[in-house]
Amino acid sequence: MGASTRVLVTGGVRSGKSRHAEELLAGTESVTYIAPGPVPDPVADPDWADRIAQHQARRPAHWATVETADVAAAVRNARGAVLIDCLGTWVTRLFDDLDAWEQPRTAWQADVDTAIDGLADAWTAFDGLAVAVTNEVGMGVVPEHRSGRVFRDVLGLVNQRIAAVSDRVDLVIAGRVLSL
What we know:
- 44% of the residues lie in helices and 21% in strands.
- The chain is an alpha/beta fold.
- The chain has a single domain, classed as P-loop containing nucleotide triphosphate hydrolases (Rossmann fold), CATH 3.40.50.300.
- The longest helix is centred in the middle third of the chain and has 21 residues.
- The chain is globular.
- The two termini are 14 Å apart.
């Protein structure tokens, strides 16, 4: 990868996309790992806490971890390379902050569009190696109820916007990588 390369890594749940993203940055001295958060309470969601612990154990100890709801600001303030894991978590947190899950789209769409624009602008302006991980909602199983459809629609839009300003998109299926 070049000095200022942006890669969007997408795939289904448990596809190996996070591991692939980490491998893209292997050997990079300075990496800011951005975890859209905060991470759920481990007592309330022990399965999620276990997944987070597994990811943390895999990452090199010298990587800096930033857990934040403001991913765009974290990208703007990052030094070295950046790894955002994952945009689906960011959309979930955004919806929680806007109380958008049960509200009509007209109540939150402008705020969501502004947040997506801010993230895309920060991603574009970042001058260094940058990798973002996301779920490919076009292939994934998303519940067919209102919240599932809204989540799929918004994450699909985020994926399209970030892909449009990336140098490369890698699709990971069963641990195998196809660069698009």
